[in-house]
Amino acid sequence: MARALAMVFCTLVLLSGCAESVSPPQTQALPTPAQAPVRFNEDVRPILEAKCLACHGCYDAPCQLKMEYADGLIRGAHPKAVYDGGRLENQATTRLGIDADTEQEWRSLGFYSVLARGDQARSLFENMIRLGKRHAFAPNSKLPEDIELGLARSNQCVSNENFSDYAADHPYEGMPLAVADLTDDEYATLTGWLNQGAAISPLVIETSAREQADIDRWESWLNGDSRRQKLLSRWLYEHLYLAHLYFRDAGADTRFFELVRSHTAPGQPVEIIATRRPNDAPDGPLYYRLRPVTGSIVHKRHITFAFGPEQFERTRNLFEATDWQAQSLPDYSPASRANPFATFAAIPAKARYQFMLDNAEYFTRTFIRGPVCRGQIATDVIRDHFWAVFHDPEDDLFITDQDYRQSVTSLLALPGQGTDLLDLGENWFRYKDKRNRYTKLRNEAYRNAYPEGASLGQIWDGDGNNTNALLTIFRHHDNASVQRGLIGQVPLTSWWMDYPLFERTYYQLVVNFDVFGTVAHQAQTRLYFDLIRNGGEQNYLRLIPPGERNRVLQRWYQGTGNLKLDFSYASMENTAPSQVPYATSAHNEELGARLLLEFHQLNAERDDPINRCGGSDCGRKDQPEWIQQADQHLSVLAATRAEFLPAIRYLPDVTFLRVWNEQGDRTVYTLIRDRAHSNVAFMFGEDLRYQPDKDRLTVYPGIIGSYPNFMFDVPASQLELFTSQLQALKAEEQERFDRIVSLWGVRRTHPEFWDTLHDITRWQREHQPLQAGIFDINRFNNL
Questions:
Q1: In this predicted model, what pLDDT tens digit does every residue of 206-254 receive, in sequence order?
Q2: Cα–Cα distance, 261 to 309 (Å, whole number)
Q3: Which residues have a Cβ under 8 Å from the Cβ of 457 and sit 6 or more positions away?
Q4: Domain ranges of the chain
Q5: How many helices (H) and strands (E) does the chain have?
Q6: Cβ atoms of 284 and 273 closer than 8 Å
Q7: Average pLDDT, the chain
Q8: Among 123, 362, 617, 620, whose Cα sits 20 to 30 Å from the Cα of 342?
Q9: CB 89 within 8 Å of CB 66
Q10: What are phi and psi of 677, to 5 degrees?
């Protein structure tokens, strides 16, 4: 080992005097297209999953060219982006598998073919991969600065007729874009398939007898005839329509299904009800149906939910425990959509809340990782690292006090139904005032109901065994992630959510959010989420001693944030006592420590010896010795502020780190940069509130994030040197960091880029088979 370290050190010395240059790609010969018959599902689909889906999946696929379903290739591309923060009118919805069925219907919606040749010698698809294969970047080199990458890239959605102009202007921007190219075999297979007519065979999935029994059980119950069942099924559908449902965990072979609304009854082919939102009027017969997920699994959209026999009985028991009745069924009007508490008032509130608590990680992921969390404006309302806990249903007044529930329900309506920019200001002030009046009534009610104040016992403990009770949220600048357990050091802020907060967040950011909506709709959604965050924070501060809460709150809302405290948010409840004892004046830090102590058994799998190491022995004791040593080496980077560890400033938001030993075993970590801000109370001007010296690094043993910004690949024998080189970095030493990247980094141009990325996916499939999916590299940096 010492010899290996010495060799690497010599390598660093040799590199220390060499400045890295960027050379233009070299032109290379093109392989001959395959002559043997090429099949789509067996030969082409694996290549698309390996080299194309890392960019062409979900709503933000460039030019709307989505490839996780075969229909996406048939549909083709569109010049308009789905995400547009400036449009004044609603855009037509273009959801694959929902809004059109045939190629002709997609053409009528403005999509153009990427497979047809027309009058050209080649299709657009072939022209793009041909351009990408023609020019090879130097192995592991930095890309030329004039190649625009990331979310700021202006996609060139050219038709085949205009391809020659594109190729002249962007000669090094073929597909896959600015990344290690297709292998010769992959190129030959794809071009052979295209030359043979690009036939696409539908992927037919046959459900097993066991799966069909599960489907029949759920569909029979969900489509019951009573008003009570119709109301309940509507609520369940609105809460599960994003889920990838599974009946039984079969590991890597688990099959996933989705809950949809159909005009056709069970036993007939599904005829999708294609409404803009899941709570829009169905306009015809309505049945709830289950259908298989037939496309490739893309990590960012893969939010799983157990739906087997055990969950069926649990769901029925929750909602049928009392003899409640629905006297009438609500309509689908804007008023009904805006207030789910009034719309579903007949369903026992405790059952609704408990269903969400049982699956809190799923619901939090839908609004943290879902469609709204794309782009900096959407996510800058939250901190980069915080914890979330939940009110115990037995102590949530909305659950336990019917009079209180009725008195506040009308104040819980949500904005965003209007689309007119001229009405934005009026709508915002109206809903802000409603929310603040609700907060005032809530404070008074809790003060009266609990004169001794809030206590840790009022936090839901997962009924002793449900690890959904404790969550950690990470924001990665323009996207975010959720993980069970209290991860990392005590964060600056935390949320304590009750049922009204949890349900409002879900409806505001998921059910009622229209990704194709106007700037007015998106702004109302974003602004109200700011109030929701503040509500979760203020509720958490009820555990801090009276007289100290405003001091802590002002620390969270420094600088311009004080303007929001004065003019936008309801006043902090600062007089009711707290039942939490304190031994220090560092109340927030001590409260976080008490959470860790109080819920230690529930949080045992998240003891986090890497980020919360109290000594020199920081490895996980349940891991092999070589992994324990890797933990120890990486712990020196964890939880240190950037002013003392300048290397943090060079790292992007999410970095995957693969570590492997001489026996070929490997493990994976995620290095998460937690950026610090004076406050997160405004939609714009984040750079003005950024505090880079206070950034920290969370080292997570496993996968967090759907969008890796970079990868390092380090032999275990060199990990100590790797971490020591990062520790030794000083500010303004970019060239030294570049040399670290050249030695251990996996740049977009690395010959092993795809193999490393896919091996990390395989590692997750081995350790978390239900969560694994194809990662997105649209945000992969050019370090």
A1: 899 999 999 999 999 999 999 999 999 999 999 999 999 999 887 778 9
A2: 22
A3: 392, 395, 579
A4: 31-195, 205-332, 381-607, 614-767
A5: 28, 14
A6: yes
A7: 92
A8: 362
A9: no
A10: -140, 150
